[in-house]
Amino acid sequence: MTETLAETISRDRIATTYQSIKPYIRETPVIEADGADFGFKSSRVSFKLESLQHSGSFKARGAFANLLTWRLPQTGVVAASGGNHGVAVAYAAMKLEVVARIFVPAVASPAKMERIRSYGADLVVAGELYADALAESEHWSAQSGALPIHAFDQAETLLGQGTVGLEFERQAPDLDTLLVAVGGGGLIGGIAAWYAGRVKIAAVEPETAPTLYRALEAGKPVDAEAGGIAADSLAPRRVGELMFPIAKKYVSGVALVTDDEIREAQESLWEVLRIVAEPGGAAAFAALLSGRYQPEPQERVGVLVCGGNTTSVVFN
Q1: Each residue of 69-105: b (16+ CB within 10 Å) or e?
Q2: What are phi and psi of 257, to 5 degrees?
Q3: pLDDT, tens digit, for every residue of 201-215?
Q4: Distance, CA of 250 to CA of 246 (rounded, Å)
């Protein structure tokens, strides 16, 4: 009998996945900050720093969930990525001594390309955008027999990313709302499945890459614009099929932010908290800092800083 989506991406499955990947990942810290330090009225903000995860982003969770679940062929694994998923798969493959080939588009940042190479994976730059790299990776998988590891539209990936929610709930049990940046939606899909309505989950996307926003408008995943400052992490063209019904059920809405607002969030995180965040990693906070998301008085807000793979911070 075929499992339903709810049975596949469930709290029990996320908890089981967590036990599997726990020896290979970090339990990333949560820090509390006073909203007044950033110039807005929200009393306290809880930041979960997945920017400190192995490989520099939450993506390590989904990568290990896949590599530890599947029987891997001798030809290894293949992944397409705007950057962070590729870094994570390369890292997991290195730790598990698996061959990996990673396809990235030209918009991938040099910092992420260098990290992929440093972990020993074979890096291939293919096309301008994520969709181009994905097509090339699928061709390579068919030709070589390598196991494809999808960045967001694969059950094991969502289960791995859902463990962020498991940790966050334990570390900050009194949250009312959690702000999560969206690209392909594997992260917010997994987190929303974990919380299952017990906390308000609000999505944040760049105006230049409104994948979930367009999908919710259309009632199904559709192509959206795919550009902007966070194009290497938040611009896959459309959200995944697996996450979309979860988002429809549990995501309260989408806040769209500008590239300038993302830059300001990056700068503010560094200046106030000395947190290094890449553009995609700062996007969720950009919604709060800019007022695109306005919490109610006394609303306890959590913000996921989901990635830190950047060289944009200048140290004097």
Answers
A1: beebeebbbbbbbbbbbbbbbbbbbebeebbbbbbbb
A2: -125, 155
A3: 999 999 999 999 999
A4: 6
Q: Model confidence over 227-265: pLDDT tens digits?
A: 888 877 777 889 999 999 999 999 999 999 999 999 999
Structure confidence at residue 227 (pLDDT):
85
pLDDT digits (tens, 9 = 90+) for 304-313: 999 998 876 6
Average pLDDT in the 95-113 region?
A: 92
pLDDT higher than threshold 60 for residue 314: no
Structure-token pair, residue 158:
């969502």
Angle, CA of 276, 279 and 280, to the nearest 5°? 105
**DSSP alpha helices (H): ranges in the chain?**
5-8, 11-21, 59-67, 84-96, 110-118, 130-144, 155-171, 186-195, 211-218, 231-234, 243-250, 259-273, 279-290
The string of pLDDT tens digits covering residues 59-79 is: 999 999 999 998 999 999 999
Torsion, Cα 210 153 112 145, to 10 degrees, reads: -140
3-class secondary-structure state, position 44: strand
Three-class secondary structure of residue 37 per DSSP: helix
> Which candidate, 189, 158, 175, places its Cα nearest to that of 251?
189
CA distance 286 to 309: 17
Contact 193, 246 (CB under 8 A): yes
On whether the 59-148 domain is CATH 3.40.50.1100, my answer is: yes
The domain limits of the chain are: 5-58+154-305, 59-148
H or E element, residue 101: strand 100-104
Angle between helices 59-67 and 11-21 (to 10 degrees): 80
Q: What is the pLDDT of residue 42?
A: 66
Write out the CATH class of domain 5-58+154-305. alpha beta
Can 5-58+154-305 and 59-148 be said to share one CATH topology? yes
